[in-house]
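To the wet lab folks,

You asked to see what we're planning to order before we commit. Fair enough. Below is the target structure as tokens, and below that is the sequence we designed to fit it. If anything looks off to you, flag it before the synthesis order goes out.
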């Protein structure tokens, strides 16, 4: 399908027939794309559609196998990110590329040799510069101590400092709070007013529809369609992304669902406390049910789950009581919890979910060993490949083979490997923390089907999510957290988004 093109001024950035081949995989196949001056261009597609590969070629991170990149109508050779930056192209990654051991100002002025070693000067300049962007970040703060939203602000500030004409954002809102998202969108609007072009990769389709001037959809490494954002709605985007309609599979009417009855009380938490994050909270989880947990940032929902799973320790004195399958437990590390059948599936798969330099097979087999599910105490290549093959097929993990490194997979397939690592350990209770964050709509449907299947098989499932449609669509029971404790409980088909949000805020 040919791309819709503007008939007005020549595009600031254009790619023609851009192709990238990794071994037998065509990550990008003869893609055409144009970016106008001062436009916000959303780039959408499932994980593995080729979005990141395309933008990494534009940013000089990956070298194309074929095709051309033009800036102001002139072909350019972007052999490295620094060369792309000289040409005015900057990329803000989902995982930040900042130096954690340096301050905010030092990261912004890292390549500015005249300023970098004059600390007082860069702190003053950094303060003024950050204020001009309406970023509330201390220029003297160490980057290692910043939250995800503040780190992204520093990344953006660095790109603006380098006078970038094109800024590529890869999943920029995935880890931001609602307030930080509002600030981000305000910044994007100001950058557009300055004439900066924005390429915006996101799985949040509503955000793309709200802020983009034009939208491009990719599928299987190929360009599918480009048109004005006003020409799209959610269903049209999803149909272009996956080749079918997922409306019935994703976020349909939750009120029509038949709720699963509560089975055995698998987990009982009474007056659990951990510092200022978890404050005398109490709740129960039942087998054969999905219990959704919703709360704003700082509500203590993740911390409570981590205490249950032994990832964090509850207060030594007056820390409350946790009973698992009727027995009092106090896990100080995850291993005994895993042995007992409690698995926590982390919200940060890159940092905590897998060993990125190891293969899919090695990651899954290590989890089997940790959970005592392996038949041997030594590494058996035959057993490792057999286990990996079983789970790759069960979860539809898209990879060249089981020996592919997990870091080379798309976000959705990385998440499937993390889930496989959890399920291979035969859990009695699975805690999913943001199971579909940074995952495309096709993979979301698959992960939701898997979560529902686990509950149908009698496993106790707990789903922590910041996305209310997901909570409503999956949950038999919904717990709402606020200020470190569970404050409300609702039936999954008898409540709406407004009621849940009111409980989480007031």
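Sequence we intend to order:
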């Amino acid at each position: 399908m040919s791309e819709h093109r503007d008939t007005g001024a020549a595009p600031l950035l254009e790619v023609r027939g851009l192709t990238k081949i990794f071994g037998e995989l065509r990550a990008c196949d003869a893609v055409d794309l144009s970016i106008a001056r001062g436009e916000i261009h959303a780039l959408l597609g499932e994980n593995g559609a080729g979005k990141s590969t395309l933008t990494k070629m534009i940013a000089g991170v990956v070298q194309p196998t074929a095709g051309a990149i033009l800036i102001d109508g002139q072909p350019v050779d972007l052999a490295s990110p620094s060369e792309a930056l000289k040409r005015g192209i900057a990329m803000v990654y989902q995982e930040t590329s900042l130096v954690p051991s340096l301050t905010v100002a030092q990261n912004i002025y890292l390549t500015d040799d005249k300023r970098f070693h004059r600390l007082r000067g860069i702190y003053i300049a950094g303060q003024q510069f950050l204020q001009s962007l309406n970023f509330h970040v201390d220029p003297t703060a160490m980057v290692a101590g910043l939250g995800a939203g503040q780190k992204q602000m520093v990344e953006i500030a660095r790109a603006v400092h380098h006078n970038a004409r094109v800024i590529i954002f890869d999943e920029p809102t995935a880890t931001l709070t609602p307030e930080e998202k509002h600030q981000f969108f305000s910044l994007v609007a100001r950058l557009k007013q300055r004439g900066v072009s924005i390429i915006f990769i996101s799985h949040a389709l509503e955000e793309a529809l709200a802020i983009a001037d034009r939208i491009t959809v990719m599928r299987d490494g190929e360009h599918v369609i480009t048109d004005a954002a006003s020409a799209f709605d959610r269903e049209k985007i999803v149909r272009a992304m996956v080749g079918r309609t997922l409306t019935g599979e994703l976020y349909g009417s939750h009120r029509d669902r038949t709720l699963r009855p509560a089975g055995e009380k698998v987990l009982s938490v009474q007056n659990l406390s951990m510092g200022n994050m978890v404050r005398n909270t109490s709740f129960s989880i039942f087998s054969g049910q999905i219990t959704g947990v919703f709360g704003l940032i700082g509500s203590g929902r993740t911390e409570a789950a981590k205490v249950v799973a032994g990832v964090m320790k509850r207060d030594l004195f007056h820390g409350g009581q946790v009973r698992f399958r009727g027995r009092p437990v106090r896990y100080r590390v995850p291993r005994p919890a895993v042995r007992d059948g409690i698995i926590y599936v982390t919200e940060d798969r890159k940092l905590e979910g897998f060993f990125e330099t190891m293969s899919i097979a090695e990651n899954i087999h290590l989890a089997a060993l940790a959970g005592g599910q392996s038949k041997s105490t030594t590494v058996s290549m035959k057993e490792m490949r057999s286990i990996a093959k079983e789970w790759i097929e069960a979860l539809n993990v898209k990879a060249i083979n089981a020996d592919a490194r997990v870091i080379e997979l798309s976000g959705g397939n990385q998440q499937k490997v993390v889930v496989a690592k959890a399920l291979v350990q035969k859990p009695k209770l699975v805690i999913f923390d943001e199971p579909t964050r940074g995952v495309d709509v096709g993979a979301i449907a698959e992960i939701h089907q898997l979560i529902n299947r686990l509950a149908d098989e009698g496993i106790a499932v707990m789903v922590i999510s910041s996305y209310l449609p997901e909570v409503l669509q999956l949950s038999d029971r919904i717990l709402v957290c606020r200020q470190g404790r569970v404050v409300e409980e609702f039936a999954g088909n008898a409540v709406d988004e407004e009621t849940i949000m009111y409980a989480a805020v007031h």
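Structural context that might help your review: The first strand starts at residue 13 and ends at 22. Residues 1-7, 245-249 have pLDDT under 50 and may be disordered.

Thanks,
Computational group
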